[in-house]
């Protein structure tokens, strides 16, 4: 195996974003109501919760990706010097 | 680096000035209405303005008003009945003003748990809106009636020169409370006074801005008074905004729960829901 065989893949989290967005909206809505900044009513709470759920989903899909943890597996498992001649021999069988 | 510090300093100064100017400006305003004129003479000795806000503070809670024989002593029997009564559908939230029509007049003063005045509203009857002690329209969204959830509300009111017989009334605040009652009023009374102790009515302190409405109708009889646009004359119909205030919103159960949810949710969105790159071989 060499460094070129491991490639980064992007994993998106729309469901997590939606669920955490729901929680955020519920909290923010309740907070605004307890601070009396908005009127205390169920429709308001539903609007905030739905809006942040949508934002959370968008963030889970289109947010800037986190970099992978650590170097690629091939870079961790550096090939030993003993293997190199063998690899180069394999790489050019026609030679 | 130094320029940035100066910028922050100017910003901070502006912020503090904004916070300080409002209260300072209102502190300089003299009350335009003497609330004691609305309080019967025999109770006036119980009221002294200790905190200097122009609203008389409470010495002793005045005696309870006489309950009408049609007054609802139990309240809603089921959760569904209560939720229906205080449902947002019953309130016009788009209207940010307030009104009170009819001959009803008087004063309502809210106090904190120590008997210090929090806020007051005055009505002089007619079609004039409810006022604060400075003569400004009160119970609007921008100038709501402040009520301490651990305190007491004291009221002195009358329907003079009218006298309501076989009357029915209701009073409700969105999502918080609903009450109704009435009385044949054979004695022909047209004045009442009383106190509402919120500590006994509300399970915990909270802060919320809600819409409230009420109606009081002469000659309705024993049937409960429904919410409708018009009633037989004479009547008193009013609507406006009430802000329930607690000690500190963040220390109340709803406030603490809201903060916890908001913080947990935001952390989850930020760290758990963010797309991530990983290595695939």
Describe the SSE topology.
The complex is a heterodimer of chains A (about 100) and B (about 280).
Chain A: E1 7-11, H1 14-34, H2 42-62, H3 73-76, H4 83-91
Chain B: H1 2-27, E1 47-48, E2 57-58, H2 79-85, E3 99-101, E4 105-111, E5 117-123, E6 145-148, E7 152-158, E8 167-173, E9 177-183, E10 191-197, H3 198-201, E11 208-217, E12 235-245, H4 253-272, E13 276-280
Parallel strand pairs in B: 6-12
Antiparallel strand pairs in B: 1-2, 3-12, 4-5, 4-7, 7-10, 8-9, 8-11, 11-12
**Whole-number average pLDDT of chain A?**
76
Mean pLDDT of chain B: 79
Quote the beta fraction of chain A. Answer: 5-15%
- Biggest interface, residues from each chain: A-B, 53 and 39 residues
Protein described:
The complex is a heterodimer of chains A (95) and B (281). Chain A has helices spanning 14-34, 42-62, 73-76, 83-91; one strand spanning 7-11. By secondary structure, chain A is mainly alpha-helical. In chain A, helix 1 packs antiparallel against helix 2. The radius of gyration of chain A is 25 Å and the shape is elongated. Chain B is built from four helices and 13 strands. Chain B has helices spanning 2-27, 79-85, 198-201, 253-272; strands at residues 47-48, 57-58, 99-101, 105-111, 117-123, 145-148, 152-158, 167-173, 177-183, 191-197, 208-217, 235-245, 276-280. In chain B, strands 3, 6, 8, 9, 11 and 12 form a six-stranded mixed beta sheet that branches. The longest helix of chain B is centred in the first third of the chain and has 26 residues, at 2-27. Chain B starts with a helix and ends with a strand. Chains A and B meet through strand 1, helix 1 and helix 2 of A and strand 11, strand 12, helix 4 and strand 13 of B.
């Amino acid at each position: 195996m060499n460094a070129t065989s491991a490639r980064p893949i992007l994993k998106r989290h729309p469901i997590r974003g939606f669920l955490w967005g729901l929680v955020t909206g519920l909290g923010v809505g309740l907070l605004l109501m307890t601070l009396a900044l908005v009127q205390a009513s169920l429709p308001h709470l539903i609007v905030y919760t739905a809006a942040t759920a949508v934002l959370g989903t968008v963030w889970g899909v289109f947010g800037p990706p986190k970099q992978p943890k650590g170097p690629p597996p091939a870079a961790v498992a550096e090939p030993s010097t003993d293997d190199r001649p063998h690899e180069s021999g394999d790489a050019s069988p026609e030679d | 680096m130094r320029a940035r510090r100066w910028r922050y300093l100017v910003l901070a100064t502006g912020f503090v000035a904004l916070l300080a100017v409002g209260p300072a400006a209102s502190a300089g305003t003299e009350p335009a209405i003497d609330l004691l004129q609305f309080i019967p003479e025999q109770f006036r000795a119980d009221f002294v303005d200790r905190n200097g806000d122009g609203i008389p503070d409470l010495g002793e809670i005045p005696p309870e008003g006489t309950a009408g024989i049609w007054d609802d002593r139990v309240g809603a029997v089921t959760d569904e009945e209560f939720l229906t009564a205080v449902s947002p559908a019953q309130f016009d939230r788009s209207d940010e003003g307030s009104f009170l029509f009819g001959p009803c007049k008087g004063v309502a003063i809210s106090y904190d748990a120590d008997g210090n005045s929090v806020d007051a509203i005055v009505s002089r009857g007619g079609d004039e809106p409810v006022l604060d002690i400075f003569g400004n329209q009160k119970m609007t969204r921008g100038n709501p009636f402040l009520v301490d959830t651990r305190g007491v509300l004291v009221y002195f009111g009358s329907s003079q020169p009218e006298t309501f017989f076989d009357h029915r009334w209701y009073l409700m605040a969105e999502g918080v409370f609903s009450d109704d009652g009435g009385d044949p009023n054979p004695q022909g009374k047209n004045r009442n006074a009383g106190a509402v102790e919120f500590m006994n009515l509300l399970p915990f302190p909270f802060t919320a801005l809600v819409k409230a409405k009420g109606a009081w109708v002469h000659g309705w009889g024993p049937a409960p008074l429904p919410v409708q646009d018009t009633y037989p004359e004479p009547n008193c119909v009013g609507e406006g905004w009430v802000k329930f205030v607690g000690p500190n919103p963040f220390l109340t159960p709803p406030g603490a729960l809201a903060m916890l949810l908001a913080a947990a949710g935001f952390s989850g969105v930020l760290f758990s829901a963010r797309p991530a790159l990983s290595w695939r071989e």
